[in-house]
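>> received
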Amino acid sequence: MKGALLVAGTTSDAGKSVVTAGICRWLARRGVRVAPFKAQNMSLNSYVTADGAEIGRAQAVQAQAAGLEPVADMNPVLLKPGSDRRSQVILMGRPVADVDAMEYGRLRDLVRDTALGALDRLRKQYDVVICEGAGSPAEINLRRGDIANMGLARAANLPVIVVGDIDRGGVFAAFYGTVGLLDADDQALVSGFVVNKFRGALGLLEPGLDMLRRLTGRRVYGVLPWLDGLWLDVEDSLALDARRVGVRPPHGRQTLRVAVVRFPRISNFTDVDALAAEPGVTVRFATDPAGLDDADLVVLPGSRATVHDLAWLRETGLAGAITARRGPVLGVCGGFQMLGREIVDEVESGAGRVEGLGLLPVRVEFAAEKRLGRPTGHAYGRPVTGYEIHHGVATVEGGEPFLDGCRQGDVWGTTWHGALENDAFRRAFLADVAERAGRDFVPAPGTDFARLREERLDALGDLVERHLDTEALLDLIERGPHPVPVLPPGAPTAG
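>> returned
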């Protein structure tokens, strides 16, 4: 088979990423050569490909669902917000500018050509490309320059399905309103809907689905049930409020309590997913000193705005709570930089010389060129692989070496993301943390994080196979957009 599909959503966090991953896994299991694609992604969770390109973390997981090594073509445009008004623009895995919304508009032609070129290459290389939209296709104020949703669909003549999160409420109005706000040419590409996260008896939902079909003239491709405990690498901090924080029964007599500082510009918080997967480890996110109470381990994760988030730590009182605590602390990337003695930043914030928390003998200076890589090494006598994404270059002036960073007493710091996904290293690290925290916690010997992620991808593939009309989906992918009615009144033509 040959073809493509765009998975759009009524809102951010409606389920586009997981539905795209599920369709990729379902098709790959059928023997289809399938690849994921997201033309433009705004996310602080990113990943480094084997050739050193930075892409959205969700596209890396979708590539895994398809059985592929991630490449830059899968996410040719990545925007990483550094403030409410400015973002770093990454094209084909390399940063090219730091702009506000108006300045970004001047890059419109370059962004469009970059995205369409990447999609064209993927369509030539693979049988099927499953594209993920961004936000909602009904952001009519942004339609003129759009290349992530209907702008992409129009340019490449892609059929579109719209995913809605029924758990939030108002899903029928969201479906109808999404289509109704589009102009006639955009509406012609929207083929139908997928209801996501449904709980309860399907019979109670059917009258609404029937009315939606009559009102829009479009089919419902299926209803995906709520699946508890199904987590995947997410796009942004919207999903943190509903993040899985449950604990599997401990292997020893006690649990290990982990508190993760939730910075305003938190990035790559997926680093702690491997901790949450460990039996007996609880993970919570903290925004004030009380959130660190009784924590056996405090984690300072990555940050897209290191100096600004360090100032936030001081404003909230978290900085004082961290420096005063007597117990294990781990800093990753931006969090590691904050733990040092001094930060010199003329690049990201322009703040110049800033005092760090002083818990590690480290001096950090921001370089203009971003460092991207897939390093390997050893810690606790175990092999460790990871990936690094940072402007800040750390000079270690003491302590013990630790994954390109250092350790001093009960404080560890590293620039490496993904290190905790290495099972043997993670268990050794947690055993050390437990001993230092005085907890009777024993890491379970059999936890395989990579296998757990594969199991979740298989669960997504199962959801698609069991709960969506897969024959209709195959037909849509192969034949392209089907004739559908236009809903009045429609939005003004975008031009």
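>> The CA atoms of residues 253 and 305 lie 39 Å apart.
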